[in-house]
Amino acid sequence: MKELGPEARALIRTVGDADGPTADDRHRVQGALFGTLAGAAITGSTTAALGASSGAAMLSGVSAKGGAVTAQVAIWLVAGAGVGIAVAAPVALYTGRPQPAAVAQAAHVDPAEPPRAQEILPRPPRLLATTEGSRGGQHAGALLAEATGTVTRRAPPPAFTLQPREAPVAQGPSIGSEVELLKRAQRELAAGNASASLAVLDDHAQRFATGALRAERLAARVFALCELGQVEAARAAAREFLSVAADSPLVPRVAASCAGSGAARPRR
Amino acid sequence: MTESAVSRHSASMTVAASDTGPEPGRSAEVPPFEELYERHFDFIWRSLRRLGVRRAALDDAVQEVFLVVHRRLPEFEGRAALKTWLFGIALHVAQRFARTSSRHQADELPEQLPHDPVALTPHDEVARHEAIVMLYAILDGMDADKRAVFVMAELEQMTAPEIAGLLGVPLNTVYSRLRAARHEFEASLTRLRARERWRQP
Q1: In a domain, A84, yes or no
Q2: pLDDT tens, position by position, A160-175
């Protein structure tokens, strides 16, 4: 077969690997991927499965750009045997009114396995009527701000502690440790040990003050404080959360917590 | 193709954990997900771009690939190269994204090239950027089938049997597509170079 000519080969050689991602691309996607992974773990607060094994959860359909959630959100629990669990959309997650068709569509990790979102996910108060998570998130953020007396503003993207490309080896383990800590906090919370959960979150805050999963930690703190009935502290934590993660997919969840419950009213 | 279909297809492939290829009858140890992600992120990103995923959709496509990888990693059988397995997943995600979006546009190319630890002169930088623009202009002119084979053979240095396995097509089909793709690549390059020369004063 005729091979490529020298000019074509030279072109390919010149390109080499230079069409790869920039450091910004790498950080953006990594932050979004592992952030949603941990975010899903926090969201599914009633399931022990989330903390099981080496499994992690991811939100499929979550845009990596700015953490905006698209209409279809699936939480994949990859614990152990790779079980898939799905939530149809934010409307199902936050209103407790799952949309069967969307659930079925999102749940097809394994067609043989029936969707189990309703078994697993908490049913917090109805909050949002929109299926567009990002818009809903912003709205929820506004509601929360109203409740907590903060001004909602677009926060800069969360700071990453990740090293630039020159030291890539440090990134994986750091993120892995962050995820592991948040999963532990989640397990404690799910087991009803909110104080222990807070201790783990404090540990995370000490070790990864401005880590890639800072927003997820702050959101988890809100939930733990609510569990302890410390509403004022939860509101303070929610304000801090909003100040660094106004665009986070967790904003509606925080708004639906005790920190934002005063303003959390259903809208159509 | 839905994600589950991508997963099923990928899982049906026999793969190996080694980057360089399998040792007969022996599976290498599968690295933890975080390590695999770190090591292969650039490769997945680049492969998706080369296979035709628009830059605006790249973040989501990369996430989707790693979602499948994360879920399927425990099923990794270790009978082919890990990189080939990853590329197979990227290929199917790319095909799905390509069906739902328009093709690359030259103006979507990155304004900022990846940092290269080896310092390049401004001239080198410009030459490399121009080469990338030209490469993608040519790839964008190909149909998806030829493009995939060309990328796998010429850019990723995969063998024809590997490509046939990934695409699920006969070996002869790979050869004929590659022949046509090379011909098209050369013709497009000649045309673009001629246009370049014509534009120069």
Answers
A1: yes
A2: 333 333 333 334 456 7
Give me the residue from A1, A165, A172 closest to B175, CB to CB: A1
Contact B59 A169 (CB under 8 A): no
Disruptive mutation site among B9, B53, B63, B183 for chain A (greatest number of A CBs within 10 Å)? B63
Are residues B128 and A20, on separate chains, in Cβ contact within 8 Å?
A: no
Residue in the structure block whose two tokens are 């159509």: A268
Among B8, B12, B37, B134, most A C-beta atoms within 10 A, so best to mutate, is B37
Measured between its terminal Cα atoms, the distance across chain B in Å is 49
Is the pLDDT score of B181 beyond 90? yes
Contact (CB, 8 A) for A157 and A64: no
Q: Please state, in angstroms and rounded to a whole number, the distance separating the CA atoms of residues B72 and A81.
A: 9
In a domain, A264, yes or no: no
CA-based nearest residue to A157, from A208, A222, A214: A214
Any domain includes A4: no
Residues B143 and B180 sit within 8 Å (Cβ to Cβ): no
User: Which residues of chain A are within 8 Å of residue B117 when distances are taken between CB atoms?
Assistant: 165-166
The number of helix segments (H) and strand segments (E) in chain A equals 11, 2
Residues of A with Cβ-Cβ distance to B111 under 8 angstroms: none
pLDDT beyond 70 at A36:
no
Q: Domain-by-domain residue ranges, chain B?
A: 1-102, 107-201
Complex ipTM? 0.74
pLDDT digits (tens, 9 = 90+) for B72-130: 888 877 766 888 889 999 999 998 887 666 544 444 444 444 444 444 555 667 778 88
- CA-based nearest residue to B139, from B120, B155, B159: B155
Give residue A187's identity as a one-letter amino acid code. R
Question: Has residue A207 been placed in a domain?
Answer: yes
Spelled out in words, what is the top-level CATH class assigned to the domain B1-102? mainly alpha
Tell me: the pLDDT tens digits for B185-199?
999 888 887 777 766
Domain B107-201 carries which CATH code?
A: 1.10.10.10
C-alpha distances in Å from residue B94, one per residue of A93, A258, B69, B175, B179: 29, 42, 14, 22, 22
pLDDT at position A132 is 33
Domains of chain A: total: 1
- Which domain does A149 fall in, by range? 16-255
Instruction: Give whole-number Cα distances, A81 to A25, A49, A220, B70, B71, in Å.
Output: 31, 11, 26, 11, 9
